[in-house]
């Protein structure tokens, strides 16, 4: 074989190896993208299953997993409390019959026609508690969502 044929053969073989490696890397990236998509789907489905189970079996969950279940129950109660306060500030009430949000100036629910109860006056003093609770929740959320050290992928 001549020198040029050796070079041509080496370059051709090197090109094939590079193409094979590029395809391998592309396949791995594609598979990892699919894995990430299924991880997200699984996480969403587990979350929905957990919500449904907790809603249907709150007392059993509180007994079996007291710390987690109590934290969920407390967070849900606080969320409802602040949703109510937010609605009060916005001048919105919930219809006692159907649960629709109704403006405070309506005497009847526009969806079901139920008579709306009188609106309670908005409390001014909850603002400091709201800010304090928000700061506490933000700090807890930041601590809970800090990324763990990434193991090599």
Protein model, in words:
This protein is mainly alpha-helical. β1 (92-94) and β2 form a beta hairpin. The mean pLDDT is 83. Strands 1-2 form a two-stranded antiparallel sheet. The protein has helices at residues 3-56, 58-64, 66-90, 126-144; strands at residues 92-94, 101-103. 69% of the residues lie in helices and 4% in strands. The protein has 4 helices and 2 strands, in the order αααββα. The two termini are 45 Å apart.
Write the topology of this structure.
Blueprint lengths: L2 H54 L1 H7 L1 H25 L1 E3 L6 E3 L22 H19 L9
Proportion in helices: 55-70%
Give the averaged pLDDT, no decimals.
83
Distance between the termini: 45 Å
Question: What share of residues are in beta strands?
Answer: under 5%
Number of strands: 2
Q: Compute the CA-based radius of gyration.
A: 29 Å
**Tertiary shape:** elongated
Task: Specify the biggest β-sheet.
Answer: 2 strands, antiparallel
Q: How are the strands ordered across the major sheet?
A: 1-2
Q: Given the structure, what is the number of helices?
A: 4
Residue stretches low in confidence (pLDDT < 50, at least 5 long) are none
Structural class: mainly alpha
Q: What is the element string, with H for helices and E for strands?
A: HHHEEH
